[in-house]
Amino acid sequence: MHEPARAVPGAGDDELMARVGEGDREAFVALVDRYKDPIVNYLARLAGDRDRAEDLAQETFLRLFRSAPRYSEQGQLRGYLYRIATNLVRSEARRARRLRLLQPLLDLAGRAAEPASSAAGLLRDELQRQVAAAVAELPLRWRVPLVLHEIEGWSYAAIAAQLDVREGTVKSRIHRGRRQLRRALEPYWNGGAASWKTTG
Fold first, then answer.
1. pTM for the model
2. DSSP-assigned letter for residue 2
């Protein structure tokens, strides 16, 4: 049995995925290196928690690895990865909703309070937590296009293609997401400390 060819630096996504499908782990590492940071950042914005985003990113790449032998979306790996990641967040949100419905029946304790931070007086840290929490509370249909556009820098057309909706729908969802964020973070807007885009 011959060893798989070594991954070539700068190889395209399609070539690397073909090699992954043949069991080439170096090619898989090259893909993870290429997409890990943007996927983790995207998931952190959706989930509102960096540690959880790391876990979800690992699951995203695990699913990519498992799907490699069947992968056939030529030239669309980025979108494919983002779909896997988005679907994982959706699944987690459904599980969380089911848990909330079951909590009264199971007499579960409320969410434990986080320990007070010695740096609680730092407005910037508090603002970042508030923004992350507010983004995570948005409905997914608004949260996904908002994060893709504002943070990932995707165009309206790319988001529309990714979500299989019209560009006008994407713009409307982003607008509604921004509006809800402004309402949720109004105390910080008044203080002039907000860093999230609110125009456009």
1. 0.61
2. P
